[in-house]
Design goal:
- The chain is globular.
- It is mainly beta.
- The protein contains 4 helices and 13 strands.
- A 13-stranded antiparallel beta sheet has the order 6-5-4-3-2-1-13-12-11-10-9-8-7.
- β1 and β2 (about 65-80) form a beta hairpin.
Length: about 270
C-alpha cells in the first residue's frame, strides 16, 4: 500500500492499547498469591506487537440513553522499552481533524499533545490537566497514559471467577508522589490472559467513581486484543463505548505520524 494511504488509514486501536497497557497480570502457574507487583509487571510488559493501526467507533451515551457516535483513526508503535500513540478523529464533522499523540517516557510521565483545528496549533497537556476529560469522553488524560508499575503499590486481594474467566483481583494504590486523581484501582485479570477485563476506579475518599469493562476479547494475529470496551462514569451515569472495527499488527507504521508536525496535517 502507498505510504500516504497507510497514514490516512491509520486507525484508533491506539486508544484501546493505551488503556489496556495502563493496568497490570501474570499466569497462575508462576505467581505467588501475594506477589502483586509481579502481576502488574507482566501486564505492563505483555506483547502488543511492534506496531498496530486500526479503526475504532466511539459512542458517547448519556443517562437518558441518547447516543453520539464518532470514528477514530489511530496507531501505536513500540520503540524499545517505550511506545508512542496517535489518535485522529475522522467523523463527525464537528470533531473531525482533532488529533492526539502520546510519547511514553521511562523516567517521567508521558508527554501528551492535543491538536484542535479551530486553534490551528498543538497544545501540550500539562500535569494539572491530567484529570480533565479527553474530548468530552469518560476517559481522562491520565487514563490514556501507560502507567508505570512502580507508581503504585500492588496487592492481590483474592482470586475469583468473573464471567468466563478465572481472575486474580489486583488492588493498585497510587503512591503519594504519583500525583494521581485516584485513590485506588481494582482490576480483574484472567490468569491466562494479560489484559484486565474489569477495572474499578475509586476516588481518594474510597468511593467508586468509574468502571471499565472489556465486553469482547479475542486473539488477533496471535495477540490478545480488547475489541469492545465500555467506560462508565458512575457519578454522571455517562458511558463511553469503544469498538474496534478493524485492526492490523506489525505492518510497519511510519514514524512521522507520532510527531507534532504530522499532528497539524489534516487527513
Amino acid at each position: 500500500m502507498h505510504k500516504g494511504k497507510v497514514i490516512r488509514c491509520i486507525a484508533a486501536y491506539a486508544m484501546v492499547v493505551m488503556l489496556c497497557m495502563a493496568w497490570y497480570g501474570v499466569p497462575s502457574r508462576c505467581l505467588a498469591a501475594e506477589d502483586g507487583r509481579a502481576l502488574a509487571q507482566r501486564v505492563y510488559a505483555r506483547d502488543t506487537g511492534k506496531d498496530s493501526y486500526a479503526k475504532v467507533e466511539m459512542v458517547l451515551i448519556n443517562k437518558q440513553g441518547n447516543e453520539r457516535t464518532r470514528t477514530i483513526l489511530a496507531a501505536a508503535k513500540v520503540y524499545g522499552k517505550v511506545s508512542k500513540h496517535y489518535i485522529r478523529f475522522a467523523e463527525p464533522a464537528s470533531i473531525a481533524g482533532v488529533g492526539f499523540i502520546a510519547w511514553e517516557n521511562e523516567d517521567r510521565a508521558d508527554d501528551q499533545f492535543l491538536y484542535l483545528p479551530e486553534l490551528g496549533r498543538v497544545r501540550r497537556i500539562v500535569s494539572t490537566q491530567k484529570d480533565h476529560s479527553f474530548v468530552n469522553s469518560d476517559f481522562t488524560y491520565e487514563d490514556l497514559e501507560k502507567r508505570k508499575v512502580d507508581k503504585d503499590t500492588h496487592s492481590i486481594i483474592r482470586s475469583e471467577r468473573y464471567e468466563q474467566y478465572m481472575c486474580w483481583v489486583l488492588e493498585s494504590i497510587p503512591k503519594a508522589d504519583s500525583d494521581s486523581q485516584y485513590g485506588k484501582l481494582v482490576s480483574w485479570i484472567p490468569k491466562d490472559i494479560l489484559i484486565p477485563v474489569k477495572v474499578e476506579y475509586y476516588d481518594k475518599q474510597n468511593r467508586m467513581v468509574k468502571r471499565l469493562m472489556v465486553r469482547r476479547l479475542e486473539q488477533i494475529d496471535g495477540i490478545w486484543t480488547a475489541l469492545e470496551i465500555e467506560m462508565h462514569d458512575l457519578s454522571k451515569d455517562h458511558r463511553t463505548c469503544l469498538k474496534i472495527l478493524g485492526i492490523r499488527y506489525n505492518r510497519g507504521v511510519p514514524n512521522e505520524i507520532f510527531t507534532e508536525a504530522y499532528l497539524q496535517k489534516l487527513p
